[in-house]
Amino acid sequence: MESRLEYRKVIKWLISALHELDDRMCAALEGVRADQVEEAVETLHIAKHLTAAKDPKSNLSEHIRNIDRARRQDHGRPRKRSKK
């Protein structure tokens, strides 16, 4: 009987330790993901100022337009104001 109680205590401790580890890993991954997004946005802004980006027929400008569209979709487009 005592061995079962000890076993349950160990299992509860193990589960709580795993939950704590999971929380720490998720927080760390969120930080890394936020840094990567920030760097990607900075790179996008730099790329927008290149001469190839100004040419509407270039591959770079097409990629930039696609990235901008995807970003707008992710953040949700603001509604257009109705003209009264």
What is the CA–CA distance across the termini?
78 Å
Overall pLDDT confidence = 87
Q: Major sheet, described briefly?
A: none
Query: Total domains, how many?
Result: 1
H/E element string? HHH
The 3D shape can be described as elongated
Discrete helix count: 3
The oligomeric status of these chains comes to single chain
Poorly predicted runs of 5 or more residues = none
How many E strands? 0
Q: What does the model show?
A:
This protein is mainly alpha-helical and 84 residues long. The chain has one domain (2-75). Helices cover 81% and strands 0% of the residues. The chain is elongated. The mean pLDDT is 87.
Keywords, separated by commas or semicolons:
mainly alpha, 84 residues, single chain, elongated, 3 helices
Give a short synopsis of this structure.
It is built from 3 helices and no strands. The protein is mainly alpha-helical and 84 residues long.
Topology:
Blueprint: H1 2-48, H2 51-54, H3 59-75
